[in-house]
Design brief:
The structure is a homodimer. Chain A is built from 12 helices and 12 strands. With about 325 residues, chain A is of the alpha/beta class. Chain B binds a DNA duplex (30 and 30 nucleotides) through helix 2 and helix 4.
DNA sequence: TCGCTTTATGTAATCGCTGACATCATTATA
DNA sequence: TATAATGATGTCAGCGATTACATAAAGCGA
């Protein structure tokens, strides 16, 4: 491998001079600078990152931790983050946890090792008390999850108002018997500001109460994530004596599952059942019933969290920012 | 940051002994080994990767270069690769090129720097003559692209037979006037074994010839990639005097665009127009017309290319392997 | 022309880790 | 019991880059 000394030798200068040229430091004559560039080019020299890191000069890299990139929500989020990170002259290291706690901790170890200067957590696997301990090794920011900690920057969508407005939308369409799906266990839905599912749920119930509508507990579906979950939910629904006339899903996946089975179960959408998705995934508008859905501000989330984190890394900002972005209803045919 | 010396000191042994414990070398007494583990745990020690790399002990990392992870084809491919790479105790570094040549070269520089031990290219941006030069810095494998070079392992789908069979399928449904979409320029379609588009096209024309069908050059659509491209194509088609009765798209995206506009243009699918996709993307079956499509063996491709590359890194195999995997027709409603 | 600042360049220590080599201690073999 | 082999442990050089420090040359005002 080509080293800085080889470049120095070929250019007829010292390694220091080469280092100065590489890092664009002053006090190098035009003549030598040119020679160095020529030598670097001739040898195809690329500085070894590992050696630089050893000198403590940071990694110029930020880690982005997500559950899985095959989930479009996260791949679009990464996309937004990476474009911003690029713009700020950092590199992005994508780390998938596949939902495993251990993988999240391994990801955080990258901070200890100085492999990354900062980390964006786009999902939380471990309890915050555990993650907290890693703060001393580098900057951490959280995106799309709640963290009740002053020292951590956080960028989230305003789930409470998003769902409140979504519910209002259904009510404005004359729907009164609204079912509700969530990815969590039911037990965890009651405490505002703890996680986005509970915020959503409270937005939902708040809108209901504002219109004096009651919620039938039989219409609460928990642990719903996938298309298959959505299909299972619709099957259950279709066999109920008391049927809802609308359903709010926790994601476009679940909504996709529901609309995919409607025809075969002889359920008319949206007349018999309005279906409201969340996310506005790219293909939501091309489904058998184009989804009415609550769009998440993915692009801005990614952009802002990247900016805030890098600001913090550079030490240029004050207390951790908490940024809340608006969701937006996208009316299509399913509701 | 916690260093190996601090661990050594706390454990009351030399750094070498700690190093031996970390790397599971022999000749360390049980007693000292336990002490070292205890000290490592107590201090929360994680070896610094950069320092290890400097000693030439490889990075235990392989780079996966893709155009964009928001493309489900690639995110699923990465998924398959990463799971295999994990299993073989390597790490995965995902690198997006966003279709830019320079980004591909930067990715290849990771080899020079010893940031990765090998690279899987899942798309080719630069001419092969340029990429070739990087072989001396580390192992390179190519996935889903043609490379006419003995020294490079390559894993691809059998596009020729896939498209031949897909075309046969349409013919078996009574279709005789078949249009064709490709992502490339028309000029590049004629040479077998050069890229997968040309293989596909030749598979298509081969099937046509076998049934004495001719191909109307007006029905060739080039540079078709996105949903919007698909929509544009259908609009063009609908205004032709001579209309095809089937269309083979280069991807499920293009197929999605076509079926999404069919209803509003008053075109019945598949009666008026059969639409054949390629890829079998996860949502293909949930579209307004569930797509009949040619499934790519993504999982096996990812798995095999990872295995072959890591085999090569370890130096355990003979000449570069060329692996060709079968595509499979998934009949649904669009054709 | 003299001292003083500024610019240009080089020497060598250092970062954390591994591994070749050296040194004892212990056990096996003759 | 003497000697060789093996096991346990330590010392220290070196990987490739940065950077504190040293030094020489050039610029500059009086």
């Amino acid at each position: 491998m080509v080293t800085i000394s080889e470049v120095a030798q070929l250019a007829g200068v010292s390694v220091t001079t080469v280092s100065r040229v590489i890092n664009d430091y002053p006090h190098v004559s035009k003549a030598k600078k040119d020679k160095v560039f020529w030598a670097m080019d001739k040898l195809g020299y690329v500085p070894m990152q590992a050696a630089r890191q050893m000198r403590g000069s940071g990694s110029q890299t930020i880690g982005v931790v997500v559950p899985e990139i095959i989930n479009p929500f996260f791949s679009y989020l990464i996309n937004a983050i990476e474009r911003t990170v690029d713009k700020l002259h950092y590199k992005t290291l994508i780390i998938q946890t596949f939902g495993r706690k251990q993988n999240e901790l391994t990801a955080l170890d990258y901070l200890k090792r100085h492999q990354v200067d900062g980390i964006i957590l786009c999902a939380l696997e471990n309890d915050w008390d555990i993650i907290k301990g890693y703060q001393k090794y580098g900057q951490i920011a959280v995106c799309n999850e709640y963290v009740d900690e002053d020292t951590i920057p956080m960028v989230i969508g305003d789930q409470f108002n998003g769902l409140r407005q979504g519910t209002e939308y259904l009510i404005s369409k004359g729907k009164t018997k609204i079912a509700y799906c969530t990815g969590r266990d039911s037990l965890l839905l009651q405490q505002r500001g703890k996680n986005f599912d509970s915020d959503r749920y409270l937005g939902f119930t708040t809108a209901l109460q504002a219109h004096d509508l009651s919620f039938n507990p039989a219409w609460l579906f928990t642990n719903a994530h996938s298309i298959e979950d959505g299909q299972a939910i619709l099957k259950q629904l279709s066999q109920m004596a008391q049927k809802p006339d609308a359903i709010i899903t926790g994601s476009d996946e679940v909504a996709t599952g529901i609309v995919s089975l409607a025809k075969s179960l002889n359920i008319q959408i949206p007349q018999d059942l309005s279906v409201l998705g969340v996310d506005d995934q790219p293909l939501a508008k091309f489904l058998s019933y184009p989804l009415t859905t609550i769009r998440q501000p993915i692009t801005q989330m990614g952009q802002q969290v990247a900016e805030v984190l890098i600001d913090n890394i550079k030490g240029t900002t004050e207390p951790a920012q908490k940024i809340k972005l608006d969701l937006q209803i996208v009316p299509r045919e399913s509701a």
